[in-house]
Amino acid sequence: MVVLNKIYTKTGDAGETALGDGTRVAKHSMRVAAYGTVDELNATLGMARLAAEGELDDRLAAIQNDLFDLGADLCTPGMEKDADREYPPLRIAESQVLRLESEIDGMNAKLTPLRSFILPGGSALAAHLHVCRTVARRAERISVELATMESVNPEGVKYLNRLSDWFFVAGRIANNDGKDDVLWVPGANR
């Protein structure tokens, strides 16, 4: 259980922060950048949810919860020590990745295949979901870079990869099942 009685602690005033295992690192460390970008994605998703309703909003709420799981995963280094810990840290599981894949397949089955790239936009919800897609891609790039330096849960990286695809397909659903997609016209303004 989390209890937040005091919001500011002053422990980060010198440019360091604590990771999930208590280790102190610079606020500009790659690990902090990874989970910070996941937090940014979650806030961006909160904006998208203002335009969502019904089943799509329910799925977005589930993703927001997953993103907190992913933030907890990324802020706790040392996956190789998980089995020896008294309280194993929260890690993204394969089942969360598989759920995204299943939802992508279900949404995509409703859509006409694309014959052109689409521009981000159409409805307000679709535009927000495309912003989420690009922030998810950035979080993925940072997490992949972090994985070249330190251990990172590979399921977390897979989750971000699938999530950006999920946002793309959901953006098409938000555009009247793709009927209102804005198509790219190569060289249209030459």
UniProtKB/TrEMBL annotation:
Gene3D superfamilies per record: Cobalamin adenosyltransferase-like
Listed pathway(s): Cofactor biosynthesis; adenosylcobalamin biosynthesis; adenosylcobalamin from cob(II)yrinate a,c-diamide: step 2/7
UniProt EC number: 2.5.1.17
Chain ranges of the Cobalamin adenosyltransferase-like domain: 7-173
Any Gene Ontology CC annotation: cytoplasm
Sections of the chain in a coiled coil: none
Keywords recorded for this protein, A-Z: ATP-binding, Cobalamin biosynthesis, Cytoplasm, Nucleotide-binding, Transferase
GO annotation terms (biological process): cobalamin biosynthetic process
Source species, domain of life: Bacteria
Main location: cytoplasm
InterPro entries in UniProt: CblAdoTrfase-like (IPR016030), CblAdoTrfase-like_sf (IPR036451), PduO-typ (IPR029499)
Subcellular localization: Cytoplasm
Family indicated by similarity: Belongs to the Cob(I)alamin adenosyltransferase family.
Descriptive protein name: Corrinoid adenosyltransferase
Organism whose genome encodes this protein: Rhodophyticola porphyridii
